[in-house]
Amino acid sequence: MSESTTHTIPGEQIAFIEEFEAGQNTFDDGDKVRATVVGIKNINKKDRTASVTNTKVLSVPKVGDIITGNVAAVMSSMIVISVDYINGIPIKAPVECVCSIREIRKKNTALVNDIVTAKILNHLNGAIHATINEPDLGVLFTKCRKCGDEVILFRDAIKCKECGWIDERKLASNFGDKSFIKQE
Ligand SMILES: [Zn+2]
To answer: 143-151 — which CB contacts under 8 Å span 24+ positions?
Structure first.
């Protein structure tokens, strides 16, 4: 039975210290080498080390990453997005990014609690900056601002199925595609 690649949980025994030294993401409890993170066990027989590769997604998006999340706040020139996914992978610890909406000429670029997808532009002054100003970026899911009901595409705008209110958002090209919900 090969045990060279198996998932570990923190505290799990991965080797005996008389055979292997504690490598990355492990500790030596005086008898055994144990994992400190969720990851993949690596037993290196040549170096006689036991280590774990961390598979938990780092929750800080990098420049160029595509993120999906909930709109946490809407201000006159920017929105704040609470990031849930980085490149389609759910993240464990919440992180927020800000998105300028100054150049977007829409009545309501996005509303609080809308689900949006954005691209990370840079990290500046301790904030993560993103953009939704590209065709495939913007609102994926929104509701009627008047009654909170479901909306459908109406030309390049949206229309409430319930009250008929017509409104605008900066819609992503795949608006209405609910597949992002099933990623978890
Ligand atoms: Zn409505």
So the answer is: 143/111, 143/113, 143/114, 145/108, 145/111
